[in-house]
Write a structure and sequence with these properties.
The protein has 734 residues and is an alpha/beta fold. The chain has 27 helices and 33 strands. The protein is globular and about 90 Å long. It holds the Pfam family RRM_1.
Length: 734
Amino acid sequence: EKSSCLSAPLFGEDCEISRDQLYELLKYAALGKCHNATQPSWCRIYRQSHLAGVVVIVLPEMSQLHFYRFYLQFKHLRRVFQHRFTLTPSANFLASLYGEGPNWKPQNTAQGLTATSSECNSKSPESQCDPIIQKYGGKKRGLSSYILSLEEQKKNDYPTKGSPGCNGYVCTDCNQQRTDSSPLFGLDCEMCLTAKGNEVTRVSLVDAQGQCLLNELVRPESTIVNYRTRFSGITREMLLPVKTRLSDIQTRLKSMLPHDAILVGHSLNNDLQALKMIHPSVIDTSLLFARNEGRRFRLKFLARAVLGKEIQCEQKLGHDPAEDARAALELAQFFIEQGPAKVAELNLEMLLTTEKLAEVSQKKAVLQLQGHKGQRQLDKPPHLSNPCFLECLQVTGQKPLLLGRQELDSSGLCQSNLSTSNKQVLQKALEDVPLSTFSIIQFSLGPENISSHLLAELCEKVGSKLTDMLTIYAGPFEESFCLKSVKKQFGKCGPIQSLTVVTETCQPYVCIQYEVLEAAQLAVESLNGAEVAGACIKVQRPVTAATLDCDVLIKELELDVENEGVIYVAGLKKSLSEQDLQEKFSQLKDLETLFLPKDLQSGKHWNCCFLKFQTSQSAVDALEVINDWSMKGSRLRSRNALASGHLWRWICQMNHSNGKQRNVSCKKMQQLSDSEQDLKKKVQKIDHHIKKLYRRLQNNTLCVVLFPGVNSTYGSQSGLGLMGIKDDSGRSAC
């Protein structure tokens, strides 16, 4: 049986997640597409139905500052969880994990219709009369069963071979036999009105995972008489530089689609007619979600009611074809996976009627409010509570488990157990978590470890340590040495933040602070003992209490699972684009992703990049190849990555905010240092507790560890999330 898989934000991308987005992930992981839970917008879970369970570990008094300050102590976390994301700090964080309640009742909300137990488990006589049941029956079918027949295509004005008006249409040549495992592709076009009628001005194609393969503007052959900007989103200015013609798009679509491809769209006949293309196998979601008397549901309504997604929003200028194509594709996938009976239970017709009545009532209310003297502006509509997915879990016979040292839930929706220590929490978790499909476990540092003064000390120490690790001293140089030559030589190791000449010594030295850790380390490794600007120099970091364990930290960073299979390359020409670099490094075997970091303030990319490979061995081989290029005169220099993912952005932010530090008396600082030592031991124990619990989890369990963030008088510290699906190796998969 295939394992579940987690696809997080792309390598190098910054990802700050709100509590609502986190709720979105946990709801889908716990419920799948039942109760209209939908794939989270910021990551994807593949084969959700194969998940053995969901475990959320919360460290309530901690932020990402704590994770990186006690990086060496969090030995298990950094070696197991590959996916990391920034978490927006939130008050009442635990409550936000399981939605609002506990007295929530199913209602029509922007999140979609959430079913009650009677709706999930009973088949009413009305559902048997549903047009979907009448058309497809109640049993699940393979996707090939929903492909339109040739007769259905002709009846619904699809372009087909030999049909009147289809002369000159291009065939996709996808003539291979379709099966239930044939690939699905979502297609949508936007049209403008020209002298010849509707012509394509934008085309989008997405694959079965929702990845956009094509999103192209097209210049029509005829003169545009109406851009229909309100619906198409197309303006005259957008099309002015466009040279792509319809024939170019036809050629690209033919080459992109495999021979057994199935196209999915909403009223797809209009898109194919505008594209002047013929494709034999289509699934039309406007026909799939059948209604009586030939009527059709709008795509916007289906996306909201079935997927819980808002598309074609009024705030946006026109429709987004990629968004529409993705929505149609996900609707088809939902229908195929859930089957006609489950779709019929949604009672879409009733939901649409309810929605229309609500709109009428709201309009009446607007008119009444506008009639009141002095009422000039309508207040925002009342807030509708998010559905509590813990109630939905209960409907399916599951009762979530909550364990911690403080009161976690008063709704009665969970098996809640209050413990007096983290050790008790662990013992209870080892017994109960394997028996629960959804668990929230809380390990606490205790209130005595969350003071503003301690947070201030942590912030100052982390900032100081980062500065020291990013800084190197080089020298001695001759009195009349060329500073430009030194800057050029050290600049080959990576982006320089500052360079100053040290004149307090007998002979001049230079102090260089880099933007990234890899650059400083590369300078120490490659230029120590080298001849620079006519002098044989020594290169070293400043010797401070913070850098005494620098070598240990560098080694551990290299072993961090986030840096697995990733190398750092410096000495790039700034004129090279990401596409140029892709071509340059294309000969490196198993190259998966290239990430070109940019300055957070100017937005300009630096003279370095990170390369991620499919395997660690491929990364080792790539290092040898690039070092061989260097031996032959190339400017490039490379080494193993140290801070390639979430950490490098955090370093940049800390590096540019180090000016905000407080002065603390020596006596007070000594007291704080003692507190920090105590905190270090507690953090180490918590990491060990998580390691024990993680080992006890079943394979294919989604595990999420959350540092919620801190709000204090010293300032706000963002949270951090780590997640992964446990595999056979005991590590987080994907």
